[in-house]
């Protein structure tokens, strides 16, 4: 039997409300400050009050938390590879940390297809991180399709920023 | 009055109240006024719409039943009937606000000359009275004013809270008799109610009657809800929930207020659809980034994988005979429409026009497939035959998406998204002929409509 009966709807949603608060990543993450260590120097936030292994530590030490895709595409290009390489270095310095890879699409696709496309993108990023030596069991994926745009405009510039895979540290 | 009408009326009055009784209390707790659709007609209407007078229903004795006065109900029921007929696009009703009231005697002896004088080709009469057992009896009659003949006679014994259904059933009988089409007013819609900023929309599962009446929110918005579908008996809804930050298809039990997973899996499941008999559910599942279509018994068990290729295969909709499935796939490059047998065999591409095709939905009549066509910077709703011929686009806006069929296959609902930072979604419907475009009344923004079958 593969169907599991859940508890009553209300109770389940109430639990989610609690769970979501602790795990919810900011939808639009702060920009990476200029001149910050790209991770190669091994600065893990010591002395700045940033908790090692935290989302802020991650943001301070990677070139970007996200990679971008072409229209209907999910290939990891050279720029994406460099971004993921910096993420991989940080992840290998913080072996206890687990991450969530969010796949997103722009609004110019139908809902269900975009969910599938977000899955492709998140998995493409996950697979590349794994190829760099990150244990794939440390990486969860979720597709948001077109449900959570980072840029709200309806133009090519916004679409390009919304076709993305974002790595988010899972807070413990 | 024909023998057939009598039999229908009898069957109806027996089966009417029972399935609704359990729902009534929760719906009564969230009353939502249902504004008429008539103020948002876009585009043309037929110039020769039939004029039908719909005076307030009479009552033999003003009685209060469950807080409802039979004379007030007579007027409200006539208003709902007139609004239904108007919404069909085929009729120009003269509602209780524009014609005189009738006496109880007139119900079965209309003064045809009066109605002819108002240029009404048809007139609707009826009555509302207490049943004596806590319910209501509603009579519904349609007459031809020129011939002086009776075209429809139906009677319904209902629970007081179901008075809108009596109005829809009466409108359905009139519509069917005059147009020759199958009825569609007495049906319900599941959709996603939207609110909040574009970057962080709150999306709640909600249900309502086909005219927006009896609106009810089901989920509270804590978890994103997407793509609901009513089961054919209206007892359950399949939909996608982001509960616990995962993407999974749930089966929600409307009466019990509880839900269960359609299948237990670590993978994302989405895009659910019922089989016409309600025993099977189609869903899409992404495994290591690759999405394929699966079918599982609605009561559980091991899913059967129907597609197996590296492209995205997603969505799907059963033919009304339950023998075939139409779905979308990008295996050839962009999204296109394909059909297959329900065991996954004989997969064939059917859309070959320019642009991309998505969200196919088989008409309940079986003769057409509705879809979203993407091209030229627009999303438009259209229809084609199941073999891909006779393509017609019915809408022309920036982003019209995800059509769903009326129970009789004559009307399509879909959602329209406006562009820009303040872009919103709203529910619309359009006739199969591309005319009679109307926005549906919802308390807020809406998307992902799903129209259920005619109610028994």
Compact description:
Chain A has helices spanning 9-23, 55-61, 78-93, 111-131, 156-162, and strands spanning 5-8, 66-68, 99-104, 139-145, 164-169. Chain A is an alpha+beta fold and 172 residues long.
Commentary on this structure:
The complex is a heterodimer of chains A (172) and B (456). With 172 residues, chain A is α+β, with helices and mostly antiparallel strands. In chain A, strands 2-5-3-4 form a four-stranded mixed β-sheet. Chain A is globular and about 40 Å long. The two termini of chain A are 32 Å apart. Chain B has 456 residues and is mainly β. Chain B has two domains: 177 residues, 3-Layer(aba) Sandwich (Rossmann fold), CATH 3.40.50; 264 residues, 6 Propeller (Neuraminidase). Chain B is built from six helices and 32 strands. In chain B, the strands form eight sheets. A five-stranded antiparallel β-sheet of chain B has the order 1-31-30-29-28, with no helix packed on it. Chain B has a five-stranded mixed β-sheet with strand order 5-2-6-7-8. The two termini of chain B are 22 Å apart. Chains A and B meet through strand 1, helix 1, helix 4 and strand 4 of A and strand 15 and strand 16 of B. Strand 1 of chain A pairs antiparallel with strand 15 of chain B.
Summarize this structure as a short list of keywords or feature phrases.
heterodimer; A: 172 residues; alpha+beta; 60s Ribosomal Protein L30, Chain: A; 5 strands; globular; B: 456 residues; mainly beta; Rossmann fold; Neuraminidase; 2 domains; 5-stranded antiparallel beta sheet; 5-stranded mixed beta sheet; disordered N terminus
């Amino acid at each position: 039997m593969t169907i599991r009966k859940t508890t009553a709807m209300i109770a389940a949603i109430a639990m989610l409300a609690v769970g979501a608060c602790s795990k919810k990543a900011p939808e639009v993450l702060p920009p990476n400050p200029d001149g910050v260590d790209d991770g190669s120097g091994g600065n893990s936030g010591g002395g700045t009050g940033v908790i090692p292994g935290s989302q802020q530590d991650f943001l301070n030490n990677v070139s970007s938390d996200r990679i971008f895709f072409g229209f209907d595409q999910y290939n990891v290009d050279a720029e994406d590879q460099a971004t993921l390489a910096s993420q991989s270095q940080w992840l290998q310095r913080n072996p206890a940390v687990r991450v969530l890879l969010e796949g997103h699409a722009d609004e110019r696709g139908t809902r269900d297809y975009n969910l599938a496309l977000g899955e492709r993108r998140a998995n493409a990023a996950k697979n590349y991180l794994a190829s760099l030596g990150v244990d794939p069991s440390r990486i969860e994926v979720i597709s948001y399709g077109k449900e959570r745009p980072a840029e709200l405009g309806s133009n090519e510039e916004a679409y390009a920023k919304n076709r993305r895979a974002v790595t988010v540290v899972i807070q413990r | 009055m024909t023998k057939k009408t009598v039999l229908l009326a009898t069957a109806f009055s027996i089966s009417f109240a029972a399935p609704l009784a359990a729902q009534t209390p929760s719906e009564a707790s969230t009353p939502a006024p249902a504004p008429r659709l008539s103020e948002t007609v876009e585009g043309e209407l037929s110039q020769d719409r039939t004029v039908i007078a719909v005076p307030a229903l009479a009552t033999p004795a003003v009685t209060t039943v469950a807080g409802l006065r039979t004379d007030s109900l007579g007027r409200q029921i006539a208003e709902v009937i007139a609004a239904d007929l108007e919404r069909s696009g085929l009729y120009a009703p003269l509602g209780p606000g524009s014609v005189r009231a009738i006496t109880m005697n007139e119900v079965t002896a209309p003064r045809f000359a009066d109605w002819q004088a108002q240029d009404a080709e048809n007139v609707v009469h009826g009555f509302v009275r207490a049943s004596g057992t806590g319910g209501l009896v509603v009579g519904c009659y349609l007459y031809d004013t020129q011939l002086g003949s009776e075209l429809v006679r139906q009677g319904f014994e209902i629970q007081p809270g179901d008075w809108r259904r009596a109005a829809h059933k009466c409108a359905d009988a009139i519509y069917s008799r005059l147009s020759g089409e199958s009825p569609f007013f007495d049906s319900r819609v599941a959709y996603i109610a939207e609110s909040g900023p574009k970057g962080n929309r709150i999306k709640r599962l909600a249900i309502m009657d086909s005219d927006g009446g009896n609106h009810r929110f089901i989920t509270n918005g804590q978890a994103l809800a997407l793509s609901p579908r009513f089961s054919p008996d209206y007892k359950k809804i399949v939909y996608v929930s982001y509960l616990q930050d995962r993407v999974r298809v749930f089966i929600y039990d409307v009466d019990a207020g509880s839900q269960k997973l359609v299948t237990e899996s670590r993978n994302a499941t989405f895009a659910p659809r019922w089989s016409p008999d309600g025993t099977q559910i189609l869903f899409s599942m992404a495994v290591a980034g690759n999405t394929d279509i699966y079918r599982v018994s609605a009561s559980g068990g091991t899913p059967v994988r129907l597609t197996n290729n590296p492209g995205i295969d997603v969505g799907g909709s059963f033919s009304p005979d339950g023998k075939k499935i139409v779905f979308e796939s990008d295996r050839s490059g962009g999204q296109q429409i394909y059909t297959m047998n329900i065991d996954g065999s004989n997969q064939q591409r059917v859309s070959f026009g320019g642009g991309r095709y998505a969200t196919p939905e088989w008409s309940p009549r079986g003769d057409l497939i509705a879809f979203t066509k993407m091209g030229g910077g627009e999303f438009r709703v259209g229809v084609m035959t199941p073999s891909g011929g006779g393509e017609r686009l019915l809408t022309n806006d920036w982003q019209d998406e995800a059509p769903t069929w009326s129970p009789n296959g004559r009307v399509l609902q879909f959602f329209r998204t406006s562009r820009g930072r303040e872009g919103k979604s709203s529910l619309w419907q359009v006739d199969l002929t591309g005319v009679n475009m109307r926005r549906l009344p919802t308390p807020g923004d809406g998307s992902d409509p799903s129209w259920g079958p005619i109610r028994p």
